[in-house]
Design brief:
mainly alpha, transmembrane helix, transmembrane, disordered N terminus, membrane, transport, five-stranded parallel beta sheet, 65% helix, 4% strand, 5 strands, 661 residues, elongated, AI-2E-like
């Protein structure tokens, strides 16, 4: 398919909704970040409420499914959720009070154990070395004459001046001051909790109303698609967040019980901390294991408790990350590792510890918005883990950049789960069509075209001996295939797939039995080479002649190796005009008048462009039933198999048998 004419040499890759003005984009980013920072006192409770609403929405839907009215369902869910949070907060407060009481004793034990470590002399030697280095680098202060002069009169007097004792007495706090000192630290958290609770209640009560308003903002031109996208996004986010909360709570419970069994003080506190820190990527588990490890040093004179503590965290984290989480919600969170790191640093810098805990959920919400809201698509491209370029675009980009190793690596990754034919059909041939489109509109110089062809040739050479692992022999259809001139409703109805033949028909496996000729397009030769490799891998004896052979006066009576039984003309979409295609077909028909001819047009051509190529051929050639147009390599294999006499006879026999009463 040809692209619109353009003066710039740009690849056909659609921009992901980024604003066009660079300066305006920068100003907008600065403004958004400033607003997020200045209004954090309001936005943090609102964001917390939104995340909690996502978590509690499945519970509310479950109660509604049990015929509980909306308002009681919402109030009951919020009451239970905040009751659990309050209970956890009270438990953590008591545990922290106990820890503060015992902290001096733990500190002395840890210092004693560190002293045992330094008893071997290594610490003293290192400390002495550093002290001597400091004395050599920093000069010693000399006694000042002023100090000696000031001491003179006192010495002459022979008496010492005795300082007067000064005592400062603080008045006893009154009742109001005591109440204020107790309540003041609690005002902020209690107020934030109340605001969050109110927001959660209203978000759950007016969920449909909020959804309708978002649809209106996003665009109500296609209500069906927008509604389906938002419902899918909110449902998946709710399930993911609820599953994450439950898994992290179970993780914290396991850690708490394990620390209790090991003998670590305040196990409930460390279990809650471990569950919370699992929301923090990468460093959360390190933070959660640090405090119990220090206590293990204090409560045990040996090292067994410390080793058991570290082993508990290692085993629990390994099972959770590698077995439980992939089983519950897949191997990926939808974010790239770099996006996770950047998001963690950004939200922590912006909103502090709460931003650290909310970094992953917030970023995941932004990615989901980017996937379903066109104006925010750049968020999915920047932060999401989906491929930024489609496989054909990545193929073309690597060839354009001269990255032969990248081409081979991409092919190896794709070939792990698919066949060589499928890789050529889905990646390589559409990638060549992109290159041909750019070359056709003048975006690629001749040197650049040669550059791309060289890299693709290197890839084809590397894949020449590739064998599919456990190749699935796709059933080669023996049913009717539409003739070259048939379109739309004129095509024969699809027949039920018959049993595939055991092997390639006799004589068709001989070298040169199928002659493949490329068109005159810049990348038709590479496409023809892919067709030859696919035919040979299936068992056909395929050979290839250059396009220049069509322009020679002498006839092409035989192929280099044997008798020609079928012809293939390989054309990349947009690389061959109707006149050149007509010339190639007439030239092949002159030398091989009765042989089947398969014309492969590789790419994603529009129906009108493909029909224009069909119309360029003489009607008598289209009407003889020996010319077939195909768009995929698998279709070419099916068509060639049908063209064999044995297959035609078997098909006619089945049709005759089916026609009998």
């Amino acid at each position: 398919m040809r692209l619109p004419e353009s003066s710039g040499a740009r690849a056909r890759i659609r921009a992901a909704g980024l604003p066009s003005g660079g300066t305006g984009t920068l100003y907008a980013i600065v403004a958004v970040v400033s607003i997020l920072y200045v209004t954090r006192e309001l936005l943090v409770p609102l964001v917390l409420a939104t995340l909690l609403a996502f978590v509690l929405a499945p519970v509310v839907r479950g109660l509604r499914h049990w015929r509980v009215p909306r308002i009681p369902a919402v109030l009951l869910t919020v009451f239970l959720a905040f009751g659990l949070l309050t209970t956890g907060g009270v438990v953590m407060g008591r545990q922290m009070a106990e820890l503060a009481t015992d902290l001096p004793r733990y500190q002395a034990a840890v210092m004693e154990k560190v002293g045992h470590l330094s008893s071997g002399g290594m610490v003293e030697r290192v400390s002495g070395l550093l002290q001597r280095l400091g004395e050599n680098v920093v000069p010693r202060p000399h006694a000042s004459t002023s100090s000696s002069a000031s001491a003179g009169p006192a010495a002459e007097a022979g008496t010492s001046v005795r300082p007067l004792p000064v005592e400062v007495h603080t008045p006893e706090p009154g009742t109001l001051e005591l109440i204020q000192s107790v309540i003041a630290p609690l005002v902020g958290p209690v107020a934030t909790t109340g605001i969050v609770a109110v927001f959660v209640v209203f978000l759950l009560l007016y969920r449909e109303d909020m959804r309708d308003r978002v649809i209106k903002l996003v665009g109500s031109g296609d209500l069906q698609r927008t509604t389906a996208a938002l419902d899918e996004a909110t449902t998946r986010l709710s399930r993911f967040f609820l599953a994450q909360v439950m898994l992290n709570a179970c993780f914290g419970a396991v850690i708490g019980l394990g620390l209790w069994a090991v003998g670590i003080p305040n196990p409930a506190l460390w279990g809650v901390l471990a569950g919370l820190m699992r929301f923090v990527p990468f460093v959360g588990v390190i933070i959660s294991v640090a405090f119990p490890a220090l206590l293990a040093l204090a409560v045990d004179p040996g090292w067994a408790t410390l080793l058991w503590t570290v082993a508990l965290f290692a085993v629990a984290e390994g099972l959770q990350a590698q077995a439980v989480e992939p089983l519950v919600y897949g191997h990926s969170t939808g974010l790239t590792p770099i996006a996770v790191l950047l998001a963690t640093a950004f939200w922590t810098w912006l909103w502090g510890p709460l931003g650290l805990l909310m970094a992953m959920p917030l970023t995941l919400c932004l990615v989901v918005l980017g996937r379903h809201v066109k104006q925010l698509e750049f968020l999915d491209v920047l932060l999401g883990d989906r491929e930024a370029l489609a496989p054909p675009e990545a193929f073309y980009q690597r060839a354009l950049a001269g990255d032969a190793d990248g081409l081979i690596e991409q092919a190896e990754l794709r070939l792990n789960g698919t066949s060589l034919r499928a890789y050529y059909d889905e990646v390589a041939l559409p990638g060549l069509a992109l290159a041909q489109a750019d070359a056709g509109r003048g975006a690629l110089s001749r040197r650049r075209v040669e550059w791309v062809r060289d890299k693709v040739d290197a890839l084809l050479e590397d894949l020449a001996d590739h064998e599919d692992a456990g190749e699935d022999e796709a059933p080669l259809m023996e049913g009717p295939v539409a003739p070259a001139g048939a379109t739309g409703d004129d095509r024969a109805p699809e027949a039920p797939p018959p049993a595939p033949p055991a092997s390639v028909p006799d004589g068709w496996e001989a070298p040169g039995s199928i002659l493949c000729v490329p068109g005159r397009g810049r990348f038709d030769g590479q496409a023809a080479c892919m067709l030859v490799q696919a035919l040979r891998q299936r068992g056909f004896g395929a050979g290839m002649l250059p396009n220049a052979a069509l322009r020679k006066p002498e006839p092409m009576t035989t192929a280099p190796g044997g008798t020609v039984r079928a012809l293939c003309l390989s054309v990349v979409d947009g690389g061959t005009s109707g006149a050149s295609l007509r010339y190639a077909v007439l030239r092949l028909r002159r030398d091989f008048p009765a042989l089947p001819l398969v014309i492969g047009i590789w790419g994603e051509a529009e129906a009108s462009q493909e029909q224009a190529l069909r119309d360029a051929l003489p009607p008598e050639i289209l009407g003889d039933g020996t010319v077939r147009f195909v768009r995929r390599l698998q279709d070419a294999l099916d068509t060639l198999l049908q063209a064999s006499p044995a297959t035609r006879s078997a098909t006619e026999a089945r049709e005759t048998q089916a026609a009998k009463p």
